[in-house]
Structures are given as structure tokens and as C-alpha cells.
Amino acid sequence: MLAGVYALFTLLPPFSGFSYGPIQIRISEMFTVLPYLFPWAKWALYVGCILANLGSPFFLWDITIGAFATLLSGYLTEKMWSPYLAPLPPVVVNALIVSSYVSFLTSLAYPVVFAQILVGQLISCYALGLPLLLYLIKNPYLKERIGGD
Q1: 17 domain residue, yes or no
Q2: How far, in Å, CA of 52 to CA of 96, rounded?
Q3: Residue 84 and residue 66: Cα distance in Å, rounded?
């Protein structure tokens, strides 16, 4: 289910207009904090990212390297020791990895693309993802329903 939600929040308008390219704010990236509470979520996000990247102009690059960046982010998020640090791996990993191939494919300067993707990830992961994570932490019933604990 999470894979589908991630893909829909990336592919469907109005979100799709901001989901790809050197300037991107993937609203779906707010879900990348979920492996902090639910280790299984990293795999769902990985599959969701592959599905979402079927609509990417960087098709094979996003499906392979971009999806790997999401899986790596999920693994690192799962290992974070504070909910306030949980958004950090997807921000840093995507800013470093995704910007490298987007810069190469668009011939834009790496520092510029890095900064643009970094800002987009900060918005998605900290401004949207962290409040979601804190809400789930404070609501054990909802956390149990999602995680099956």
C-alpha cells in the first residue's frame, strides 16, 4: 500500500509538476521518515520509487540509481537514534546521489543542482515528514494500525 501511495503522490497532478528535474519537491518524500518506526517501509518506498520513476524524464537513471538512493536512505533512517534525525538521511543521500546524475544529464552545475535538490528534500522530509513522524509517535493506535505491532 505504501508503495502505491508514494507513487501516486509523485505521479499525479498537481504533485507531478514538482517531482522530477533539477528543481524538485517530491511530496511523496515525506514518507521516507517511516522506516524510523517501521523497518519494512524502506522496501515499500523502494518499490514506490521505482513505480514513480516510470514517469521520469531520467527514466533508467531514476529507476536504478534513484531507487537505490531511496533504499539506502530508508536503511539509514531506520538506524537513526532520534526522530528529529530521521529526515536527515533522505535529505543528504538524495542531495548527493540524485543531483550527481541530474547534473550530468542536464549539463547544469553540480553545486546548483545539489542545492536545489537539497532544498526540495528539506521541505519534503523536514517540513512535511517530521510532523508526520511525530504525529505517529504520539498516536500509538495509529502507529499500531500502520505497523502491525
Answers
A1: no
A2: 20
A3: 24
Give the span between the Cα atoms of 74 and 70, in whole angstroms: 6
Angle between helices 88-106 and 110-121 (to 10 degrees): 140
> Which distant-in-sequence residues (6+ apart) come within 8 Å of 111 by Cβ?
none
Question: Is residue 19 situated within a structural domain?
Answer: no
Q: Using one digit for the tens of pLDDT, what is the confidence trace for 78-120?
A: 999 999 999 999 999 999 999 999 999 999 999 999 999 999 9
Could you tell me the residue range of the domain that residue 121 belongs to?
Answer: 2-7+24-147
Is residue 14 included in any domain, yes or no?
Answer: no
Q: How many domains does the chain have?
A: 1
Beta strands in the chain (DSSP E): none
> How many whole angstroms separate alpha carbon 108 and alpha carbon 106?
5
Query: Is 141 a domain residue?
Result: yes
Per residue in 125-138, pLDDT (tens digit) is 999 999 999 999 99
